[in-house]
Amino acid sequence: MTEKLYHDCHELISQGRALLEDLQSWGISTVPHGGRPAEMSSPEVLAERLEAATLDHLQTLMAGCTRCPLGEKRKSLVFGAGNPQAELVLVGEAPGREEDEKGFPFVGEAGRLLEKILFAMQMTRDDVYICNVIKCRPPQNRDPEAQEIETCEPFLKQQLEIIKPKLIIALGRFAAQTLLRTKAPISRLRGHWHEYEGVPLMPTFHPAYLLRNPAGKREVWEDMKQVMRRLKA
Ligand code: URA
Is residue 6 in some structural domain? Predict the structure, then answer.
């Protein structure tokens, strides 16, 4: 898909979504659609879903994805890795250079720190499932753009629906703000339980942030202790 076409499609979808949201705010729950009413259970009604009941199937269907321009530049689509029946899912931001090279999430320096955190929680990568909000590396590791997040988010949602974890950890601002649909800063979100589709969610600082600000490790550990307590409950 060309960049222009991508932007035009995105614009149309955004306009449609805004219209549906507006209608919903009036209490209107169905709209005529080709002679038959379309369900309007949530604004995601326009987002793409792939018919997949397992992570493997979803990953296969996503292979070769070029729904956003990141798909044209990546080496690997970094789908996610770990235990598909995990009680705990950790959601990061986006693959970096090493993740793009290897095709797995959190295999660079931030990943090594994440493994230490898991070790301190008496867990390994095999006990949890790790994935990102977006599956392809943004050039020069720039922040993901709103349109990229919107395009990729339905697949994260599907991953979480398939895994049905007991708890979610949102690593950093992008994961927390995307899953919680908020613009609140991570410093305010972290340390408190939130909910994503009925699943308790703990936001915490991103391991890459901790590499730059080691003082934040104390707060992350406080957050992880809350997670451990709740996992055992
Ligand atoms: N940072 C992330 O958010 N995700 C990765 O997979 C690697 C680094």
Answer: no
Q: How far is the CA of 116 from the centre of ligand 1 (A)?
A: 15
Q: Over 60: is that where the pLDDT of 24 sits?
A: no
β pairing state of 30-33 and 36-39: antiparallel
Q: What is the pLDDT of residues 187-214, one digit of tens each?
A: 999 999 999 999 999 999 999 999 999 9
Spacing, Cα 106 to ligand 1 middle (Å): 5
pLDDT of residue 50: 86
**CATH number, domain with residue 153:** 3.40.470.10
Query: Which pLDDT belongs to residue 14?
Result: 60
Pocket of ligand 1 (CB under 6 A): 92-96, 99, 105-106, 108, 110, 132, 208
- What's the 29 CA to ligand 1 centre distance in angstroms? 38
Which structural domain range is residue 89 located in? 36-232
Whether pTM > 0.85 for this model: the answer is no
209: its two tokens: 């942030």
